[in-house]
Amino acid sequence: MDPDAGLPAQLARDLDASFPRLVAAHEDRLYTIALRLLGERRDAEEVAQDALVRAYRAMAGYPASRIAELRLGSWLASITVNLARNKRRRHVDRHPPLALEPIIAAGFDPPTDDRRGPETTAGRRETKRELADALLTLPPAVRAAVVLRHVDGLSVLETAAALGRPEGTIKAQVHRGLALLRTRLEARAVAGERHENRTSTPRRRAAAALEALP
Amino acid sequence: MTTSELTDRSLETSLRGLRTPAPEGLGFAALVETGLADVYAPIASPLGRAFVAWNGRGVSWISAAEPGEFETAFAAQVGRPIRPAAALPDRLARAIERRFGGDRRARVPLDLRGHTPFEVAVWTKALEIPRGEVRPYAWIAAEIGRPRAVRAVGTALAHNPVPLVVPCHRVVRSDGRLGQYSMGGPDAKRRVLGAEGVDAAALEREAAAGIRFVGSDTTHIVCHPTCRDARRVTDRHRVGFPSLGAAKAAGYRPCRHCRPVSVGRAA
Question: pLDDT tens digits, residue range B148-163?
Fold first, then answer.
């Protein structure tokens, strides 16, 4: 079932009356997309809110026929991904990046903290956080494909539409992303047994890894 | 589950587990930004504590009512969802305070959607009346090109959703009485005008004595009594007129600043 059934037609008929329904139906997923792309709650909140506002303003300028044909799932995702990309650029300008990729490739995988109790709530939360952190280490293009396809749950076709890339590229990027994630999580599990380190953010872990470089 | 046993299937399941509900208020904030909902917060006004409602398009409602009553009135008149906010955004609060202080250049965006073009024209014209001065309802009617709509001007001013920012208190009856005021009646109107330097009692006395316009026997220019030009005229040279016609007959021309108009029947 399409959760947006009839919504584009309603938005086309009366944007102001129907827009609150769009917000209720999509705020969680846009926040999730932004959060999993950026990693920071405050940034994600800003991006998701801004995405909704931009969607409204865009539709206010569209003819009704164009609104009625919108595929809200991928259209809203693409607005969110673009805003998150801009936010990350500004963030990178302010904070020169730590080159995480070569460090990990060199075998200095960031240590993680040691509170991993299997099958406990804390353990699940920990695994969830490790997965979220691992996502943030993926190259941005791959990360966006994985987040839209598997966190948000768009189809390959919708993901391709949202990111403006061919379906084949999306399939390859999702495949590569899952493989990278598996490698990262396995490396982390091993590293976690070696280290008693409680540093928490990927950035700090990367910084710790940098310290450890000869 | 150990991560080394991750299959694609379990990895995909775990990824779906990363879905996170948006923080409380995110969607509402987006609706406020687009102007489909409003928030409100208190502000200090010349009439004591007032509440200001606003959204991404501008200030939509000002009232001295207490929060519960404020929300009820807003819902009835405007019809959008509204929630309390901790405080006004700094820039907006400063601009409103400057407006309250009489600075007409302070930019206070207004959201006047849902009101008639006539009402908006009346309120926009009222914005031109400087602090310390008043004009009759008939003046607004004449200025907006609807000289016979004096009563409708009064009704529009009574429905002013943003009193004090749109200074409907500076519009009075042509017979010198202060007339109605949407934010607390004639006494409140007298108080706000007093704070702006208008001696309402003196104005009423003069009007009761039949003086509706004031001229200078040196310049032969006739004004509304509170016009800044009329207030500069010394008592020795001050001449009162019951009507614009009488002033014109005596050789006076209307002031170009306050543009006095003949008083219509309905005023």
Answer: 999 999 999 999 999 9
